[in-house]
Design a protein that fits this description.
The chain has about 140 residues and is mostly helical. It has one domain: Tetratricopeptide repeat domain (Serine Threonine Protein Phosphatase 5, Tetratricopeptide repeat, Alpha Horseshoe). Helix content is about 70%, strand content about 5%. The chain has a two-stranded antiparallel sheet. α3 runs parallel beside α5. It is globular and about 35 Å long. The protein starts with 6 loop residues before the first helix and ends in an 8-residue tail after the last helix.
Length: about 140
């Protein structure tokens, strides 16, 4: 059954946002662009917040159609993190790992999310597992 939700697009959007984030933020700082509060007080561009909101809605829809979709759980963990709903981010990340504990991409995402959540030891464990599963990850991860 085709749900009409492009879940792989959600994941790609978040990866692209993180890979290009520092460069975009430097450009935005220099331009005096309208910035809003982000993680840990770091500003995020309003356009990124808008993308995050759209991704959140898509991930919610994907989960309403299939609550066992581990990629949708990872995808929704990021906007929860940006919204400072840390318990929800951790809950969905944990669910994604439980559903597919041998997925290197999920574990790579968990590495960053746990770091932002202030749980670096857990992040390191996930990162080490991700590298064992995929010793040559794409450069963006």
């Amino acid at each position: 059954m085709d749900s009409g939700v492009d879940k792989s697009g959600i994941t790609r959007a978040f990866r692209a946002g993180h890979r290009n984030g520092p460069r975009l933020l430097r450009r935005l700082f220099r331009s005096g662009h309208n910035l809003s509060t982000g993680i840990g007080g770091f500003p995020l561009p309003a356009e990124f917040r808008s993308l995050c909101d759209k991704a959140f809605e898509s991930a919610q829809r994907a989960l309403s159609l299939d609550g066992a979709d581990y990629e949708a759980h990872v995808a929704i963990a990021w906007p929860y993190l940006y919204r400072k709903e840390y318990d929800q981010a951790k809950k969905h990340l944990g669910r994604a790992i439980k559903l597919n504990p041998n997925n290197a991409d999920t574990l790579a995402n968990a590495t960053l999310i746990f770091a932002f959540l202030g749980e670096p030891e857990e992040g390191i464990k996930c990162g080490e597992s991700a590298l064992q599963l995929n010793p040559r990850p794409p450069t963006g991860i």
